Amino acid sequence: MLKLSGACMAPAGGKGIDEDAVNFIARELVLGRSACPQLAVVIGGGNILRGASFRPEGLPRIRADYAGMIATMVNGLVLQDALLAAGADAVLYGALGVGGVVRRFSEEQCRSELEAGRIVVLCGGTGNPLFTTDTGAAMRAVQLGADVMLKATRVDGVYSGDPETQHDAVLHECLSYGDVIERGLGVMDMCAVALCREHSLPVRVFNYGVQGNIRRALQGEPIGTIVAGS
């Protein structure tokens, strides 16, 4: 299970959808697919709208979260199209179905798609407000029996501080679930970390912007940070 931040589809330092960025990710996924017989991808929507922080005057958190889920659907459609154009057989499923556009998630159908060698793109988070796409990715990883959850971000892994503002921040090569929770490290939201710990699902955090990194992560190479048991 690969969790992609919506930021991977945006122009550097910006918002929205950048064609070059989308095509880069699609090519990286096609390259990575050659190293992994079954690949599911959960896409976020922060490049368009992040529900937790999108709070115009009078808009309740619940509705803002649903707007964020719809943003992930937009990204899912764009990513699926880019994958198809790159020669991959890709299908799109969402926690919230949209007739004729996004099929509603079904564990049985998605397992069949994976067994048939298709890249399964998943959007819509958990389908419920108050949960992030990280939690959605962890949940889908458990449902589909994934061996590992790969979290692709714009930095090289998990650091002792924010590497974009703290130049002395140190990269952690490995952490336990307890380390992440007790230190409040920004790997994923705590609900997602707890779910991974409960199901002994290891998480590898790495940089999606380095060419070949998705393939390396899918091959099990020790890049970025691994979060697992003791």
Can you give a write-up of this model?
With about 230 residues, the protein is an alpha/beta fold. The chain is about 35% helix and about 15% strand. The protein has seven helices and eleven strands. β1, α1 and β2 form a beta-alpha-beta unit. α1 crosses α2 and α4 packs parallel to α6. It is globular, with a radius of gyration of 17 Å.
SSE string:
EHEHEEHEHEEEEHHEHE
Name the shape in a single word: globular
CATH class: Alpha Beta
In the CATH classification, which architecture applies? 3-Layer(aba) Sandwich
Q: Approximately how much helix is present in the residues?
A: 25-40%
Question: Would you kindly provide a brief summary of this structure?
Answer:
With 230 residues, this protein is α/β, with parallel strands linked by helices. It has helices at 19-33, 61-85, 107-115, 133-143, 177-183, 190-198, 213-218, and strands at residues 2-4, 40-43, 90-94, 103-104, 119-123, 149-153, 158-159, 171-172, 174-176, 203-207, 225-228. The relative contact order is 0.16.
What are the key terms here?
230 residues, Carbamate kinase, nine-stranded mixed sheet, 7 helices, globular
What topology does this entry show?
Elements: E1 2-4, H1 19-33, E2 40-43, H2 61-85, E3 90-94, E4 103-104, H3 107-115, E5 119-123, H4 133-143, E6 149-153, E7 158-159, E8 171-172, E9 174-176, H5 177-183, H6 190-198, E10 203-207, H7 213-218, E11 225-228
Parallel strand pairs: 1-2, 1-6, 2-5, 3-4, 3-5, 6-10, 9-11
Antiparallel strand pairs: 7-8, 10-11
